[in-house]
Each structure stands twice: as structure tokens, then as C-alpha cells.
Amino acid sequence: MKIFLISAKFLLLMTLITGLFYPFFIFGIAKIAFPNKSGGSFIEIGGVKISSELIAQKFDSSIYFQPRPSAISYLPMPSGGSNLAPTSLKLRNKSDSLKKAFIRRNLLSENTAIPPDAVFSSGSGIDPHISPENALLQAERIASARGFGLDKKNKLLELINILTEQKQFGLFGEPRINVLILNIELDKL
Predict the structure, then answer these.
(1) pLDDT tens digits for 49-90?
(2) What is the band of 113 on the pLDDT scale with cuts at 50, 70, 90?
(3) CA triple 113-119-123, angle to 5 deg
(4) What are the residues facing 43 on neighbouring strands?
(5) How many C-beta neighbours within 10 Å does residue 184 have?
(6) Which domain holds residue 14?
(7) How many C-beta atoms lie closer than 10 Å to residue 141's C-beta?
(8) Domains in the chain: how many in total?
(9) One domain, residues 116 and 27
(10) Do both 51 and 141 map to the same domain?
(11) HSE-CB of 185 using CA atoms within 13 angstroms
């Protein structure tokens, strides 16, 4: 009976520490040190939260940059990739059709090198970033659809350059651009 009481007290103590005190402590630190990120990284326009910059949005209009393809139709709840193997014929056919659609949509030549993020979905299916190469290939279509002259087209290219995030800590990942932020700034041009 003595061992049972000691075990029960220890279980209660550890439950309070690891299940209550520690999570609230970490939550408090996050709220103080990273208030935007701990709150979901929401973007506000005119005091209204429009979306999180962490989740890809589908943009169908030709006047906006398109995100990378999504295996889950940009729905955050069932996030995940296609789970197709690199040797899968289905993956090859899908990527070939997405490549042709990207070339057609952006009025590119057939031999244009298309970045992988234009034809393959991310592991989560909701990655909000594209490569700078992807954005630059879409820039001509957007400039044309918006009726931009040379001056505004140069501002668009400058915007892509300004919003390009470099590798994290100079080591991890690849240079990338958040499509939602890019499209919001594009509307301001």
C-alpha cells in the first residue's frame, strides 16, 4: 500500500508538472517572445484577419501568383502529400500535365526549365512558398494580365527580389517567397 501511495503521488506530481505547468510556461514564453507566430501568424488588412501566412491559399486568377500544387486542394485539416513514389507512373503523368499547364498558363516556350515546386506538391500540401525562379516565370503573365508598363513590371521584379527569404540561418532550406504576402504586396503596386 505504501508503494501505491508513493506511485500515485509521483504520478499526480508529474502530471501537474508535464501536463499543466510546463505547457503554460512554454506558452507564456512563446506569447512574450514570438507573439505573432504563437498566435498563428495571421495577416490583417484593415483590422480584419484574412489568413495565416503559414498556409497556402489557392489563387485562380491570372493577375495573381499561383502557389505550388496541392495534393489536398489547399485544405489544412487533412494536410499531407500525395504519397506517390518517385517511380510512380501516376506521379509522372500528373507532373507532366502540371508542367504543360504551367507552360501554357505563363506563355513559356516548351523547352523552358520549370522549377520542381511548380509541378510537385509539398509534403504537407499547404506549403505557402514558391521558389524565386517560379515567381519570375509567372511575372510576365501577371504584368500582362494587369496591363503593367515597363516601370511597373520592373517594380514587380523588384518586389520578387525584396520578398525573397534566404536560407534559414544561411544553411537550411532554399530561397523562397511567400505567395500570399507577394500577392498582397502586388495589389499595392
Answers:
(1) 888 888 888 888 899 999 998 888 777 777 777 777 888 888
(2) very high
(3) 130
(4) 51
(5) 16
(6) 1-39
(7) 18
(8) 2
(9) no
(10) yes
(11) 17
Where residue 105 falls among pLDDT bands split at 50, 70, 90?
very high
Amino acid at 33: A
Do 126 and 70 form a contact (C-beta atoms < 8 A)? yes
pTM: 0.78
Question: Hey, what's the cell of 36?
Answer: 505573432
What kind and span of H or E run contains 130? strand 129-130
Distance CA 70, CA 121 (A): 5
Per residue in 39-54, pLDDT tens?
878 888 888 888 888 8
Q: Are strands 177-178 and 129-130 parallel, antiparallel or unpaired?
A: antiparallel
- Which ranges in the chain belong to alpha helices (H)? 2-16, 22-33, 35-38, 89-105, 132-145, 150-163, 179-188
